Fold each of these.
Amino acid sequence: MIHKYGPHIFNTDNKEVWDYIQQFCEMIPFINRVKTIYKGKVYSLPINLHTINQFFDKSFNPEEAKEFINSISDKTIDEPKNFEEQAMKFIGKDLYKAFFYGYTKKQWGCEPTELPATILKRLPVRFNYDDNYYVNPYQGIPKNGYTEIFENMLSASNIEVKLNTKFDSSWDLSEYEHTFYTGPIDSFFDFKYGRLSYRTVYFEKYVSDGDYQGNPVINYADPEISYTRVHEHKHFTPWESHDKTVYFKEYSKETLETDVPYYPKRLKSDMDIYEKYQNDVNNLNNITFLGRLATYRYMDMHHVIGEALDLIDKNY
Ligand code: UDP
């Protein structure tokens, strides 16, 4: 029940995906409520009326908060070209500096001006007290964990699983009717146009008695605190009861050759390289590139499943 690769809360707006995943597990409804700590104070996320009132020490109602944020947001930005501009346009400098600038520099290892605006668009801004981290209507945690999903998916008699068998470009794929490749796209081509940049994350594990932070995820916005967030796993399964607790401090760093890639950075220089690989992919037959690594996009679990189901619907 410990999410080995960081906190994962299944959420989607696609009923087909929601129904599909539940063939392999029982989902327990779960709403993710994340807090963030900035300069020693705890705030509500995603940015909502509570955050705005806490941060500016006000008691605005929704209309007043909208007017206020409108008055402090940067109106010189028409079409936000990067993460920073997206934030400045929608929430203004103070909230951006407090909650996004430091966290994002730690998470991505670069200036937010270098990052695409789409990363920030993942998070809503609300003028009410709704602190549900996601906007998607279907949200849950698999009752017996994510491993069970894969065990059930792979238990069909016509699926053979070979572990510890890393794809190698010397394989003769013409032996197969079709290949679905979900590894990193640059590795498929032996990095011939160079490496795409990714962030990886690593975790420091702690075990103690009781309750460490009283919430599944708390983010740390200050740049001086070197981890980005702390996840305490028993809070993802409130239907279970545990006297002890396991929690992790999450750190982010650049992905080296031996690290597991997590987050595609998609900097301008990456996208130039990616385009070259994608051109090569377009010239291949009987192979489909799918998922976060093979398409070099910041996809969630439900996006990956949704695209796989679409592909099957269209072709088979
Ligand atoms: N982010 C931030 N402060 C926060 C939470 C998120 O600056 O407290 C930014 C950060 O750049 C992050 C992005 O928003 O990478 C997307 O956040 P999300 O929680 O969706 O990231 P994930 O859970 O996929 O790591």
Amino acid sequence: MQIISTTQELRDRLKSEPSVAFVPTMGNLHEGHVSLVRQAREHGRCVVASIFVNPIQFGPGEDFDSYPRTLEADCAKLEGLADVVFAPAVSDLYPEPQQVFVEPPPVANELCGAFRPGHFRGVVTVVLKLLNIVQPQAAIFGMKDYQQLHVIRAMARQLNLPVEIVAGETLRAADGLALSSRNGYLSAEERIEAVRLYRNLGRVQESIVAGSKDYAALERTAVADLEAHGWRVDYVAVRAAESLLPAGADDTGLVVLAAAWLGRTRLIDNIEVCVSRRRSL
Ligand code: PAF
């Protein structure tokens, strides 16, 4: 496995590769990332993982400075799985102030985007830069960041990028908590509490499968349960999986998404729901 830190060196290394599969990350890798890198092997002969904490997707007061940078440990986890780790410095990806941005679709201003203004603009901009540098035939993104996956897919489609965007399943701890680099911020007590987010998503899913269509009431119940246990909730939302727009009674492919703060840690999670249409006789 080669560790490369400049764009030029990476371009030279990949020039003669017939097919590249790419996993962009911000590092501090856990088993969820590792499973995306394993999955990448099915999509290209050369597997590239990037590790880059992207300043332009963090807002003022967010955790850009404190985001864990663990390059050595990350590379140890990728040994034998990736062929190349691309870990550029900020000055390599942003040699001059970034003034050209990708404008994500309007849905990027909802859900997480409503609480993190400019976040998805920073994400799609860096992802486009990375795709232009790596030029993979496939790029793998985790479904835990469901809205991120949605806006990246929209960008790839609408900007005609010659890349297949592949979704990777969310990996969960034994109690159901979605694996996330930010779980490392949780105290021991918060870690036990953290699974409540997923349990609430599961309850909303069960109620919908059982026939409930009052999505607003289900959202309110989940928010109330979280708040009663000390969470500060950004949102719990039932959305159409295809569009991420508010779910209508006729939508059959749904997703329940949530973001909430437990102490100083913001956790996000989601669960898909497939509603079977009942025929009326
Ligand atoms: O999901 C992430 O880790 C980041 O948002 C990404 C896609 C690597 C862009 O910085």
